[in-house]
Design brief:
The chain is of the alpha+beta class and 908 residues long. Helices cover 24% and strands 27% of the residues.
Length: 908
């Protein structure tokens, strides 16, 4: 699956190996045991050679297997420090790093808590007006990394930047997937000032999690990529980052004009003054127990419900736990967030209601009575329905492409778009960007298609019907011959010798592998293109079957059969990549369910058999998460769902745990629920670089298995938080006028959306098929609604449904999953004592004369709900005739005996 990279891709490592070794490995390594950790230090540099768990010394948090290869000048190790300073009155900053030019440090006597202490003067440039002492310490039995910085000049010095490189083993080079899951880690930041932390998780998502915490004068102010480190960055190495305690110098020079997550600061040192900065290393027992460990460590803990993306019509809640009282809460920009204080919970969590007032990024600064400051970054968006309507409008107007003379047959369509130039992307050196296939090419029309599943708009559907019937069928997809139903890699290609003069811009460099010739563009061998096309046919079926007059040119049977044949064509015409989980692969399960519901038994059996073969292959692998990339985060969606469907529960759990390892929950909208992806700006973005992408399409896709598992285990509140945050990631980056970008750039020099639409639609698919309102009762926080506005009156819990589609509601205490294939559920009321459920449905409109409601519950729930007053059709839908006014339907229930029922998957 993962394989070994080619020799040409390894050349940077070969070049690195030719540099002289300067770290001093030949002088040996010291070992320090500080349970539960074992620290190894290079004697000559006193930087970390390894940091491991005493219970698993074969695993190392640091890139220990690359130690010799990285023992060179300019390569960072845990224990290094970067500083920018200037004298009072100077205009420019001087930069210093202990990694630039290695030399043996001066060991100092260890006193007090010190385990190893050194004067770092020899490894800093001559003439630096600072003296830096580094000490590895044991403080209350915990590992602390401490720096003392002394001003040895005769004038005041300003420290404009102070960063501590966080060097952990995220180098996947030459690893199989099994090796990567055994050896490697991913790390995610909470850039929250004094309350900030870094969590370091193993790829398989199990076992202890390393936490890096502020210990002394070390607020987590910014998170800077260490791009000056020559360790080769690529799809197998995201790069290292540093924890910035001060960032004013970077903000003034490198990041000028960019609004940072936190206000950049600096420190002043008087002549002869010394100031210490320290970080602490602890472990949490598991990913789910990170917040419990933070409480134990007496750190401020914030839990946002439903998260930190706040629609303007649905206020959020914020729960704070810390040993010091809140002195003040201030929002930036002023007035962007409205904060109302509520009551304390039974275990003294302070409650606040957070209302989004001003669209865009916002920040809360919480100051505690002991002086500690915590920041929480929010994103205020329009109501979910408005954001989705804006998106659909933008896609079918600004991004609508009509050109009868297009030589590549791309008209009519929803085409990729450059938001910075406000132009269609009809040419690109990366052929797939302009070719209406692949993720970057298909992403825009896929988003437009899936928008109709939530909020169908007749004028938009008419345009998309033309696209499906004129451009997709017979263009992107072969409509006849031996390749019928196969999908091309791109409609756009580079063939200057066979195309008319002027077809290709002379300002674009078409050299290189990515400028596909016609033969490559016509290839049906890339399986990842098939789910997009399947989704388009499924949408046409869905609208034709459940709505009136929206789709009239193609019978619903034809669209459903095309969806089936496209899925089967993937297996037949793209077998190599079809062995992997596909992004949006859940569409095949939706098609299977609809084939069964419609009585297409033979087709359903054939599709199920084909998918069982794939799932059986995944079940034979330890970590079945490969793709065309060495490691990936988008196949897990399909792997989980088919594993669950076929009863491969152990593999479904392995998949879920791996998702939780790269999909954190932290008090920051950009990282909360953001599934890791760091190379798709190269393959799907305008600003092409290796960089952590915030709410790339993986966020909403990975929310599908997370929320599916939550509905099987409604007591697992952690899953609800992660899954809902991932789903909202699909809406977080939509602009005020409705443009959906590839992702948000996390580099502090940018902190903005990408300029291309790119592969945005793959993530929106995740929102379209998975978004829902979740109603739960938390043992500490009480009744809560995710994507809803909840009120309580006596035993009645009433929730206004605020998702874009208003089509899915989950009531956790009874495990009831309500889904409307047509019709909108505006309000749901639950009687806690009697179990009664009432649904308020919106009135009829021109396309929606009936509501089609489904009631789903896991087999382990005793209370069974039905709608006895309504007819249930052969497809399993309750039919509710809609009128000119809203109506309320009552769902009744009966308690049954549970006996010999197969229990759903259990959480790890």
């Amino acid at each position: 699956m993962a394989g070994v990279l080619s020799a040409s891709a390894q050349s940077p490592w070969e070049r690195l190996s030719q540099q002289p070794s300067t770290l001093g490995l030949e002088q040996g390594i010291d070992e320090i045991t500080l349970p539960p950790l074992r620290l190894q230090l290079v004697k000559a540099s006193q930087t970390a050679a390894g940091l491991s768990l005493l219970t698993d010394t074969a695993f190392n948090y640091t890139p220990d297997e690359r130690l010799a290869a990285r023992a060179k000048d300019g390569l960072y190790h845990l224990g290094d420090i970067n500083i920018r300073i200037k004298a009072k009155g100077d205009s420019s900053w001087a930069s210093y790093s202990t990694a630039t030019k290695r030399a043996p440090v001066i060991p100092l006597p260890t006193t007090g808590n010190a385990l190893a202490t050194a004067d770092l003067t020899p490894t800093l440039p001559a003439g630096i007006p600072l003296r830096v002492i580094r000490s590895w310490q044991s403080v209350n039995g915990q590992l602390v990394l401490r720096f003392e910085v002394k001003n040895e000049a005769d004038q005041e010095m300003e420290i404009g930047s102070l960063g501590i490189p966080m060097i952990f083993n995220n180098i996947l080079q030459d690893k199989t997937l099994d090796e990567a899951h055994a050896d490697n880690v991913f790390f995610d930041p909470y850039i929250g000032q004094d309350a900030g932390y870094l969590q370091v998780s193993r790829l398989h998502g199990q076992g202890p999690v390393l936490l890096v915490l502020p210990h002394e004068n070390a607020p987590f102010e910014a998170y800077r990529p260490l791009n000056d480190d020559p360790t080769p960055r690529s799809i197998v190495f995201e790069g290292f980052h540093e924890w910035l305690i001060h960032s004013k110098a970077h903000a003034a020079v490198d990041w000028k004009g960019v609004t940072q997550w936190n206000e950049p600061t600096s420190s002043l040192l008087a002549p002869g003054e010394t100031k210490a900065f320290a970080l602490r290393f602890v472990t949490a027992p598991s990913i789910r127990q990170i917040e419990d460990e933070l409480v134990t460590q007496r750190r401020p803990v914030a839990i946002g419900v439903p998260g930190y993306v706040v629609p303007q019509d649905a206020p959020a809640k914020l729960f704070l736990q810390y040993g010091s009282a809140v002195r003040s809460i201030v929002s930036y920009p002023a007035g962007s967030l409205d904060v109302k204080k509520g009551k304390r919970t039974k275990n003294s969590w302070q409650t606040y209601e957070i209302a989004g007032k001003q669209w865009g990024r916002a920040r809360l600064t919480i100051t505690y009575a002991d002086g500690l400051k915590q920041t929480i970054n929010y994103k205020v968006i329009k109501p979910e329905a408005d954001a989705v309507d804006d998106l659909g409008r933008f896609l079918t107007t600004a991004q609508w492409y009509e050109n009868e003379d297009d030589p590549f047959g791309r008209s009519p369509s929803v085409i990729n778009y450059d938001y910075e130039t406000k132009k269609h992307l009809t040419q690109e050196s990366r052929a797939w960007f302009a070719g209406l296939s692949d993720e970057a090419g298909a992403g825009s029309w896929l988003a437009a298609v899936m928008k109709q599943v939530l909020r169908p708009e007749k004028a938009e559907v008419e345009k998309l019907s033309r696209f499906v019937n004129e451009t997709l069928w017979g263009g992107i997809q072969y409509d006849g011959g031996p390749l019928q139903y196969a999908v091309k890699k791109s409609l756009f290609y580079y063939a200057p010798d066979s195309m008319p003069a002027g077809t290709y811009s002379d300002t674009i460099n078409y050299r290189g592998w990515s400028a596909w010739p016609k033969k490559e563009a016509n290839s049906p061998g890339r399986s990842y293109n098939y789910p997009h096309v399947t989704a388009a046919h499924w949408m046409m079926y869905w609208l034709a079957r459940n709505y009136v007059g929206l789709v009239t040119d193609v019978p619903w049977q034809t669209s459903l059969e095309r969806a089936y044949h496209t899925a089967m064509a993937m297996v037949n015409h793209a077998p190599h990549y079809a062995q992997f989980g596909q992004m949006e692969g859940s569409i095949f399960l939706l098609v299977l369910h609809d084939l069964r519901n419609e009585g297409f038994t033979d087709l359903a059996d054939q599709l199920e058999a084909a998918m069982r073969k794939r799932a059986a292959h995944w079940h034979s692998l330890a970590y079945p998460f490969g793709s065309e990339m060495p490691w990936d985060s988008t196949g897990q969606e399909e792997v989980y769902l088919w594993s669950r469907y076929f009863g491969f529960d152990d593999k479904a759990l392995v998949t879920l745990n791996a998702i939780l390892a790269y999909m954190p929950t932290v008090p920051h909208w950009g990282y909360n629920g953001s599934a890791r992806r760091y190379w798709d700006f190269v393959y799907g973005g305008k600003l092409a670089r290796i960089e952590r992408q915030l709410h790339h399409y993986g966020s909403a896709l990975n929310s599908i298995p997370v929320l599916t598992h939550y509905r099987d285990h409604p007591d697992d509140f952690y899953l609800l938080r992660v899954g809902h945050a991932g789903a909202m990631g699909a809406l977080a980056n939509i602009t005020e006028d409705g443009f959906g970008p590839a992702a948000f750039h996390s580099y502090p020099a940018t902190l903005a959306i990408d300029g291309y639409a790119g592969d945005y639609g793959c993530g929106f698919y995740g929102y379209a098929v998975n978004s829902g309102t979740y109603i739960t009762k938390h043992p500490e926080f009480g009744w809560l609604a995710f994507s809803g506005v909840l009120t309580q009156q006596g035993n009645w819990i009433t929730t206004e449904v605020t998702t874009a589609g208003q089509s899915r509601v989950f009531i956790a205490p009874i495990g009831l999953w309500l889904t409307a294939d047509a019709g909108r559920m505006e309000k749901v009321a639950y009687q806690e004592k009697t179990g009664e459920v009432r649904i308020t449905l919106a009135e009829a409109d021109g396309q929606t004369t009936n509501a089609y409601l489904r009631l789903n519950q896991p087999v382990s729930v005793a209370d069974r709900y039905t709608l006895p007053a309504c007819q249930r059709n052969d497809r399993g839908q309750y039919i509710i005739a809609l009128g000119s006014e809203k109506q309320t339907v009552v769902i009744s229930h009966a308690t049954i005996k549970l006996k010999n029922l197969k229990q759903p998957l259990t959480k790890n």
